[in-house]
C-alpha cells in the first residue's frame, strides 16, 4: 500500500494498454496484465479496452468470456484449483472434488460467501504422473491426499 | 570432490512436478544442512517422476542419485555422507546413468533434460547446444528443409504430419513476413513432455525455432504456452532473455544473415487453443474459434501470413537432426514412424514419467516394464493413449506397437504419446460420459456436430446406463459418434467419439444398466 492517490480504473487500464502497444494481437496479453494487476477484468474496463484497441465492445466481451482465465468478478482471497482430468481421475481426483465442494459449500467457479476461497476446476496441470494435483494461488501440489486438501481448504490458513 | 570441505555440487530439480512434491523445500534443506559449501543446481527432471524429489550429487565417477527425498530426509542423508557420494543410505539409487529405467531409453529430444542447468547458456553449449543451428546456418534454407524431410520427423503434437513437407510449403510461399509458431498448449491430460522440455531445456526449443525460421524465411516467432504452466512460462522468458544477450536471437543470429525475434504468449485456459487454427486466432487476440481448412496455416496462418505451426517436441527434435544429420534420426523407429517418441506414463501408475524411446515399443512394455503396473497395486484395467481424445484400450491390446499406423489400424491413436493408466475400479461408462462432457465444455462452438453433439452424447450415455430404451439409445450413440467423426470442423469434435466408442467396444459390461442387469 503506497500513500500516492489511487489511480482511476481508466488510467490503470490505459497505461497497461500502452505497455503492449507494440504487441501484435495484444488483447490477450493485455487481459492477462489486467488480471495480474487487479485480480479480475472489471466490466467497466471493456469500453476502455474497446476504445484503445479500436475494437467493438462486443469483441472485447467475447474474448473475455471465451477464456476460462478471465473473470469479471474479484476472486476470493485464496484460489484453489482442483485438476479433474483423466490422469488425476485415475488416482482419486473425484474424491478431492467432492470433499472440496462439501467443505466449502460452493460449486466450481464459485467463491465462499465470506470471500475467503474461490474453488475452480482445471483440466490438466501437466502433473499427470504425480497426481492428484491441486493448485493453490498458482502453486502446484502433487500426490495430494484428502487430508492435505483439508489443510489447504482451511480458511485463513 | 571427495574430501570434506570442498564445494559439493548437488542437483535438485526445478521441474514443476518435482516442486509439486517438495523439491523447493529439499533444495533449501540441502543448502541449510550441508554444513559446508554446496552448489545447488536446479536442473530439469530426469523424468523418473515417482522418484521425485530426486537429488543427485556430482562425484568423480558421475552423479549419484537419491530419491524420493523428503525435506526431513536431508539431515540423515548429509550425515550418511552423500555430499561425498556415499552409497550406503537406503534412499541411494546408485549412479543415475545406471538406473535401468533411464539407461534403457534413447534420449534424443530429452538428452539434456535433467542433466543441465536449464537457464545456463554455458551448460547448453558445453552439452552440444547450438551445433544444430550453426550447421543449419551454413546450409541453404532449402537444404535444411530437405534434411528435416529426410529425417522422417513427423509432428509430435498428435496428427503426425511430416514436418519437412509443412516447412517446404512455408519456404516456397511468397511473403515478406512469415512466422514460426510453437504450439505449447499441451492441454491433453496425461501429457507433460512439452512442459518438461520447456522447463528442463528451453534453449533446445529456442534453437529449434530459430532453425525453422532460417529454413522457411521467417523473422518472428511465438511460443503459445498454456497458462496452467507458470513455471514453463517463467523459464522460457528467462531463457529467451539470455538467448538475446548471447546473440542467439535478434538481429544477425550468430553473425549470420538471419534475424529472428521470439516471444512467449500465454493462453487463456481454453483447451481448444491446442488446435492449431484456434491457437492462431488466440495469438491474434481473438476468441479461439477454429478456422476451416483450407487455407492451411502454412500458406495463410498467423495474421494471414505463411506460418509454421509445430509442437514443442517437433521443434525440440530439430537441433539434433541438424547436428547429427538426418540419417541418425531416421535410423530409429519403425515403418513410417521414424525417430523417437517421448512417451509419458501417468495416471494410476507405479513408475510414472518420461520414456523416450524409438517408435515400435509395445504398449504393454511401456505400462508393465517401465510403468510397473498401477500405483494402487490393483490390476490394470484400461489405458487411455493419446490424451482425452484417444482410445481406451484393455490389457488384451498391450501387444500393440507404439507406431502411428498400427494404432490407427486398431481404431486408436498414438497422439502426443501420453499413456494414462486406470486400475480395475474405473467405470468406463463414466469415462465415456466424461469424454462427451469435456467436449461440451471445451468446444469452441463453431460447428454443430461438436457443440450440440457432445451435449446430446452425455444425455444418451446417461439414458443407456439408466436402462432407458437401451438398444435404441446405443444405436443413437453410434450414429451420433459417426456424425461427430465425419462432420466436425476439427479434431475436438472429430475425435471425441474415439474414447467413447473404444470404451463401448472393449468394456461393454460397464454400460449395462445397474437396475435390470448385474453390474460388472
From TrEMBL, chain A:
[2Fe-2S] cluster binds at residues 83, 88, 124, 128. It comes from the Bacteria. InterPro entries: NADP_DH_HndA-like, NuoE-like, NuoE_N, Thioredoxin-like_sf. Transmembrane segments: none annotated. Binds 1 [2Fe-2S] cluster. One of its GO terms (molecular function) is 2 iron, 2 sulfur cluster binding. Keywords: 2Fe-2S, Iron, Iron-sulfur, Metal-binding. The keyword Iron applies. Its cofactor is [2Fe-2S] cluster. Pfam families: 2Fe-2S_thioredx. Belongs to the complex I 24 kDa subunit family. This is Formate dehydrogenase subunit gamma.
Automatic annotation (TrEMBL), chain B:
The keyword rRNA-binding does not apply. GO terms for molecular function: 4 iron, 4 sulfur cluster binding; FMN binding; metal ion binding; NADH dehydrogenase (ubiquinone) activity. Keywords: 4Fe-4S, Iron, Iron-sulfur, Metal-binding. Residues 429-474 form the NADH-ubiquinone oxidoreductase 51kDa subunit iron-sulphur binding domain. The keyword Metal-binding applies. SMART domains: NADH_4Fe-4S. Belongs to the complex I 51 kDa subunit family. This is Formate dehydrogenase subunit beta. The lineage of its organism: Bacteria, Bacillati, Actinomycetota, Actinomycetes, Streptosporangiales.
